[in-house]
Every structure is written in C-alpha cells, then in structure tokens.
Write a structure and sequence with these properties.
The chain is of the alpha/beta class and 229 residues long. The protein is built from seven helices and nine strands; from the N terminus they run αααβαβαββαβββαββ. 35% of the residues lie in helices and 27% in strands. The strands form two sheets. A seven-stranded mixed β-sheet has the order 3-2-1-4-5-9-8, sandwiched between helices. Strands 6-7 form a two-stranded antiparallel sheet.
Length: 229
C-alpha cells in the first residue's frame, strides 16, 4: 500500500488502494488468518531475514514493516526478537493490527513519502505491499526504502511473480476493484540495484493452486551498501 512522491498531490492509485483495503479490512484479516500455517516456506524466508538483521544490527535497530495490513508480519518479526513497528495506508487495517497486537506499534503512513529520518533503520520489509505501485513509481519507492536504511541495512521484498496483473472486482461482496501487479524477479532485482542495493538472496516458489494461488511467489533480500547515503 503506497503513496506518491513527497510534495505532490495524492495519486489516484493511492486513493484506490486505500479505499479498497478500508472496505475489505475485516474480511481480509479473517480470510488470511491461517496464512502462516498454510505457507510455511514463505515465513521461513522471513525468519531467515530476521536472523540476518539480528546479526547485522549488532546492538539492535528498528525495523519497519511497510504496508503491514492487519499486522501479522509485524507480529512475526517481533516474535523473532526484532524491534519492529508497522505502517499502513489503511486505518481500518491498522485498527485490526492494534487490536490483535496490543503490545506493538502501528502508525498510518505512505511508503512513498515516509516520515522516517535518513539512514535510521536496521531493516525494512515490504511483504506484498509494492504490488499496487505502478512500475514507473517503483524507482522512487525503492529510493525511499534505500533512504531510510542505515548503511548495511537489509530489505525484504515479497511479491507475486509474473507479467500480467490480477484484477479483484468486488471481493467479499464489497463494491471496490483493484489491480494486483505481478513482476518479474529479474526486473525487481535490477530496480533494487539501480536504487543502490546489493541483492543477497532470491527465492521463487511455484504457485500452490490448492491454496488459490495463480502465480509464483518471489522473495528478494537486498542490502544497502556501507558508505552510501
């Protein structure tokens, strides 16, 4: 769930994304309540990422779960010992996150215009939250991720792999529609490297049709080089 570059009017895709998730928040949270147990390989990637961050951060450091939705990924990262907070566009999603995780921190915000000082985070996670950002906005999005990370900070990016978007029309009976972009891992890796990251890990698994998936799933772990701004 994203926004628009700082200083410009809110983009139409941002408004559409917020409206979509505001409408479906409770149904979405219920529908994906068992996702962790249903997709153990995906969460193993996140656990490995958390271990990398723990080693690299040394004396600690904050981690941002950007586009956290109902906060399940935030809670998982906290359970791995990270000092993590969640951020999302949708206030109804954040209300669920706060209700289900009263000990964790959540705040409303935009990934493309983050109210986070330069170079202050040990890591950032974008767990299926870049998928509504148009491709021409991805360079700005990844530049913003790079800006907030400390030197040697880590980024985890999860997304559906492919070429064609999936359009969800009236999910759970709500009168909203949104495109879910699928990207080629090679393209995403190139864009991350152009933003100043070094790719550390690339994991792609095939779709699990029995779980309703229609595309492969991709997970990239990248690191901001020491000595870069």
């Amino acid at each position: 769930m994203t926004s628009t570059p700082s200083g410009s009017a809110e983009a139409e895709f941002v408004i559409s994304t917020r409206t979509f998730y505001d409408a479906i928040a409770e149904d979405y949270a219920d529908h994906f309540a068992g996702e962790r147990s249903a997709k153990p390989r995906d969460w193993t990637v996140m656990a490995g990422f958390a271990e990398l961050v723990s080693r690299g951060a040394g004396d600690g450091g904050q981690v941002a779960d950007l586009g956290c939705g109902p906060g399940r990924s935030t809670a998982f990262l906290a359970g791995q010992g990270l000092d993590v907070f969640g951020l999302d566009l949708s206030e109804p999603m954040l209300a669920i996150a706060r209700r289900e995780n009263p000990g964790l921190r959540f705040r409303q915000g935009s990934m493309l215009d983050l109210d986070i000082p330069d170079g202050t985070l040990a890591a950032a996670v974008s767990w299926y939250s870049s998928i509504h950002t148009p491709v021409d906005q991805l360079p700005h999005l990844f530049a913003e991720f790079h800006r907030i990370l400390a030197p040697d900070g880590y980024l985890l990016l999860a997304f559906q792999a492919g070429d064609r978007p999936l359009t969800l029309d009236q999910p759970f009976g709500h009168p909203v529609t949104l495109d879910f972009e699928r990207r080629r891992p090679e393209l995403m890796a190139e864009l991350l490297e152009a933003a100043g990251f070094v790719l550390r890990s690339r994991t792609v698994r095939e779709a699990e049709e029995e779980l309703g998936e229609s595309s492969a799933q991709a997970f990239l772990i990248a690191r901001k080089l020491a000595g870069t701004l």
